[in-house]
Amino acid sequence: MASRLNPYLSFNGDARQALEFYKEVFGGNLTLSTFGEFGMPDAPEADKIMHGMLEADNDFTLMGADTPPGQEYNPGSAFAVSLSGDDSDELRGYWEKLSGGGTVQVPLEKQMWGDEFGMCTDRFGVPWMVNIAGDQAKV
Do 92 and 126 sit in the same domain of this protein? Predict the structure, then answer.
């Protein structure tokens, strides 16, 4: 397997719902493993997600988990998951699903650099940026 870089998101008890939502957005195969399946069957968080991985048909990979017991959940604003490309219909579809029930910070519309761009935070608190490549001005 070649090296790859993919986001790993932390959640505060709703990783299952979030990863199932992302499966609805991107499609693909979702595998979920709980804390209970990995040696903590009697723990209060036994049904929470220890590791989840979504492998979409388009080669996107998104991982996530509930914050492990004993670790503090500190959602931050120093990251965003970025989707970009030139398939306008595909990216608009992702935008509509991700922004639905969430908050739009920047509407998906043409920007001064010639692309369409938008920023939203989905209903699970994850920030997303979507950029649809446009015709670049020739200088």
Answer: yes
